[in-house]
Design goal:
It is a single chain. By secondary structure, this protein is of the alpha+beta class. It is built from one helix and four strands. The protein has a single domain, classed as Nucleotidyltransferase, domain 5. The longest helix is centred in the middle third of the chain and has 15 residues.
């Protein structure tokens, strides 16, 4: 599960970006940190501006939620198919 027993999930939708960090414990999975930011309607138009979404949304959302872990599980929702490379992830 990522760094130690932590896992970071990222969901990039058409209107918002959500990030969370969970930890696996003896009592089960618990939420450590959560971040949420809305995207301006013009940020993603037909899936063409994904790099803007990443630079203006993902980084600040991680920062605000105080998540420093780099490895994450990524979800990109929407009708167009995109690859993580389109967002700058490797």
């Amino acid at each position: 599960m990522g760094e130690g027993k932590n896992l970071v999930g990222v969901d990039i939708g058409s209107a918002s970006i959500k990030v969370c960090q969970v930890r696996d414990t003896k009592k089960g999975i618990g939420l450590l940190r959560f971040g949420y930011s809305t995207l301006a309607p013009s940020v993603i138009v037909d899936g063409r501006s994904w790099t803007r979404a990443r630079s203006r949304g993902v980084g600040p959302t991680f920062h605000d939620a105080k998540i420093r872990q780099k490895e994450c599980a990524l979800s990109v929702s929407g009708q167009s198919g995109h690859h993580p490379q389109d967002l700058g992830f490797r």
